[in-house]
Automatic annotation (TrEMBL):
It is found in: Cytoplasm. It catalyses: Fe-coproporphyrin III + 2 H(+) = coproporphyrin III + Fe(2+); heme b + 2 H(+) = protoporphyrin IX + Fe(2+). Transmembrane segments: none annotated. GO terms for biological process: heme biosynthetic process. InterPro entries: Ferrochelatase (IPR001015), Ferrochelatase_C (IPR033644), Ferrochelatase_N (IPR033659). Pfam families: Ferrochelatase. Catalyzes the ferrous insertion into protoporphyrin IX. Keywords: Cytoplasm, Heme biosynthesis, Iron, Lyase, Metal-binding, Porphyrin biosynthesis. Fe(2+) binds at residues 188, 291. The gene is hemH. This is Ferrochelatase. GO terms for molecular function: ferrochelatase activity; metal ion binding. Its EC number is 4.98.1.1.
Amino acid sequence: MKGVLLVNLGSPDSTNPKDVKKYLDEFLMDPRVIDVPFWLRSFIVRGIILNTRPKKSAEAYQKIWWDEGSPLIVISERLQKKIQEKTTVPVALAMRYGSMTLKKGLQELVDQGVDEILTIPLYPQFAMATTETIDVKVEELKNEFFPHLEITSLPAFYNKPEYIEVLSKSISEKLENVDYEHLIFSYHGVPERHIYKRDITKNHCKIDGSCCITPSPAHEFCYRHQCLKTTALVAEKLNLKPGTYSNAFQSRLGFDPWLKPPTDRTIERLALEGTKKMAIVTPAFVSDCLETLEEIAMEGQEIFHEAGGKDFTVVPCLNDRDDWSEVLTSWIDQWRIADVKTAIA
Ligand SMILES: C=CC1=C(C)c2cc3[nH]c(cc4nc(cc5[nH]c(cc1n2)c(C)c5CCC(=O)O)C(CCC(=O)O)=C4C)c(C)c3C=C
Ligand SMILES: [Fe+2]
Ligand SMILES: [Fe+2]
């Protein structure tokens, strides 16, 4: 029998700094997130970051936490329920980090008699730190605990017309009656090194003005290309005028070079250059979370106001929108009757 496992990033169990520390330890010790040798990662994460960040992050989580729990998890649960109401195959939910483990999610499906699973990493764009780490962990769990399972993973869907359609609709609905001068597409950043590491051609990615718009097999695993392409497809669909929108990358951690330009500096620059009304959308996140609710909607807005900006409009993530749950259900239903790669190609 077939079944589906939706997978998102995860959150701490609570906003208590102890729980945040435990969560950050698991997250940042993942070699696909901080991709340096174990001894160095251990020194950076356990020797430096975990001494100061958990308290600061816990305060940030406290600002956005809901009565029901972490917004990212609550929203993912709502999405899962909506999809389950629409399809006949069992649909479970798991997180890459934290208590809602991938192992529990796989077991939940196995307990219902499932032996063929489609995992859906809830990330539109491929990254080592998101899609890849989920796929690798699922493979490890299969080998160790569930050797009988047949598992397929849904590839990044940044350029699928159905996804672009709902993302564009979510933007146009929010901005329908909003007068804005500039729209920022803010994606979670990654270190530039991650882009070079996943260049399967070994020489395409330059992180310059042209590599990501020059066709190449490297783009299958190029996070930067996939972000820029998401924006380009939405801009085309919404007929956005050149100069009225731009890309930026948020949430930088550490001192290595990350993808540019940084969102906070871009917001500040726009305001300093005289932009009074701006809007921002965060297409790397399908659910609102700490990075959208605190870093963008709170901190980003503050930066804009302090630099002289006035109206700051945030487009919500797709969350549990009906049309988004319908798109995911349609991909699931296509997989039910065919191979997923051919079904959504
Ligand atoms: C959308 C895709 C994401 C990528 C790519 C990504 C990469 C990445 N993240 C960190 C460090 C942190 N990220 C944190 C929170 C966080 N990150 C994502 C998504 C991506 N991360 C989400 C959805 C969230 C929010 C989780 C929630 O509970 O709401 C955090 C924790 C918060 C904080 O202390 O700021 C850290 C740390 C790195 C190093 C990285 C590198 C590739
Ligand atoms: Fe992150
Ligand atoms: Fe590129």
